[in-house]
Amino acid sequence: MIVVKKLLFVLGTRPEVIKMAPVIRAARAAGHATTLLHTGQHREMAEDMLAVFGLRPDIDLAVMEPNQSLFTVSARILERFAPVFERDRFDMILVQGDTTTAFMGALAGYYTKTPVAHIEAGLRTNDKFSPYPEEMNRRLVGSLCDLHFPPTERARKNLLAMGVAAKNIHVTGNTVIDALFWALEMPHEPSPEIWPALGGNHRLILVTTHRRESFGEPHRRVFRALREIVDSAPDLKLLLPVHPNPNVRNEVASMLDHHPRILLTTPLGYLDFLHAMKRATLILSDSGGVQEEAPSLKKPVLVLRETTERPEGVESGALKLVGTDPELIYNEAIRLLTDPAAYAAMTGKENPYGDGQASQRILRSIELFFA
Ligand code: UD1
Ligand code: UDP
Q1: Residues 6+ apart with CB under 8 A from 45
Q2: How far is the CA of 245 from the centre of ligand 1 (A)?
Q3: How far is CA 311 from CA 155, 164, 286, 291, in A?
Q4: Looking at the CA of 294, which ligand is closest?
Q5: Which residues are 262's β-sheet partners?
Q6: Interior angle at CA 310, CA 341 and CA 266, nearest 5
Q7: Contact, 70 vs 83, CB < 8 A?
């Protein structure tokens, strides 16, 4: 018989909603009492994702401000957590990934002596400024929490090296694959805004970029390379759903607007984005989630970063690190677009990030923790 537990799910950004949704679904199906706390670190982007998975926050801290700094977003989240715990107690807090929301959620758990579970634990680049601040966020969450759910064996070893007791670590796969399989089952008509990218005989290049360490000159180098790639062949189109961070939006607008074969949109809903990934010939991205999803859709990803905490995808051949050097980005993209053997070498790989059962494993481990 299952003993009902009060679980507090803390989420705040787009990827946290996507990756937490299957765990919330599993916990509800098992009869646990779930409370969804949305910090509101993201506003529209998180709301789009909550709607896709039919989730409604029980608590919304509504912290987002335009162009928020790491100081203000951290302080606002932590401060607004306090009354939540004055009103209520929880058996466990669940946080996901490496955002400021996850770090503050884990810290709130520590302050209130509530057990914390970390989904997507153990990812490391071992460079504390890359990605910034995510590498430090996940290390700090790892120090604060009680149960660790690494997606891969490699991530488990990173936790052991940090001194985490083996009994508190359970390799589960990444819940993003559970979310992906779930979403692929949902009926969906693509939105008109992306029809020009989907219809027609062109080859589609899909791009996303938002990392803080790329703001400014690194982004300008990437955008120069993107223009040259599209200009290299008349049948290429590029779709870039632009992250709303003004540091990204302004640079994209000044360098990529007004090109007849470059389509800039607002962030896409998850189901639109999955359509675009399926339609794409090639993906260039600095996103963590995209690196994990693309191998399941058999799409090659050129990773627009100098480091990755997802080396399994690089080793399997599905991902290639190209950083922000325009020449390397251009050469690697052209190679994939012109050399079928190079393209085949990056596709058709097994996805190292999971089998769609991660949330079930997480839930079983949580129940065992209490047993
Ligand atoms: C955050 C996470 C990052 C994650 C990313 C996912 C931190 C420090 N960063 O980065 O790890 O990869 O989310 O996308 O936790 N904005 C809007 N509407 C939205 C969302 C953002 O307008 O719905 C704009 C606001 O001006 C906001 C800015 O983007 O101030 C930055 O948002 P923030 O959450 O601080 O950083 P991200 O770059 O989104
Ligand atoms: N995504 C989306 N719409 C977009 C861009 C991305 O739904 O316009 C999804 C994508 O499929 C992945 C997640 O958002 O699941 C990744 O989020 P993001 O890149 O913002 O964050 P990261 O994974 O880098 O933390």
Answers
A1: 13, 14, 244, 267
A2: 6
A3: 10, 21, 14, 10
A4: 2
A5: 238
A6: 85
A7: no
| 3-state SS class at 119 | strand
d(CA 198, CA 114) in angstroms, rounded, equals 47
List pLDDT tens digits, range 217-253. 999 999 999 999 999 999 999 999 999 999 999 999 9
Contact 205 CB / ligand 2 (< 6 Å):
no
Per-residue model confidence as pLDDT tens digits over 99-122: 999 999 999 999 999 999 999 999
Q: What's the pLDDT tens digit per position in 285-296? A: 999 999 999 999
The pTM for the full model equals: 0.98
- Whether ligand 2 lies within 6 angstroms of the CB of 283 is answered as no
Nearest CA to ligand 1 atom 24: 245
Comparing 6-173+356-370 with 192-347, is the CATH topology the same?
yes
Question: For ligand 2, is residue 12 a contact (CB within 6 Å)?
Answer: no
Q: What is the mean pLDDT of the chain?
A: 97
Are the C-beta atoms of residues 239 and 317 closer than 8 Å to each other? no
Tens digits of per-residue pLDDT, 126-171? 999 999 999 999 999 999 999 999 999 999 999 999 999 999 999 9
pLDDT band per the 50, 70, 90 thresholds, residue 332: very high
**Cβ(288) – ligand 2 distance below 6 Å:** yes
| Domain coordinates in residue numbering, the chain | 6-173+356-370, 192-347
Q: How close is the Cα of 14 to the center of ligand 2, in Å?
A: 7
CATH code of the region 192-347:
3.40.50.2000
CA separation for the pair 187, 167 (Å, rounded): 41
Ligand 1 atom closest to Cα of 46?
A: 23
Q: State the CATH architecture for 6-173+356-370.
A: 3-Layer(aba) Sandwich (3.40)
Assess whether pLDDT exceeds 70 at residue 4. yes
| H/E run at residue 135 | helix 134-144
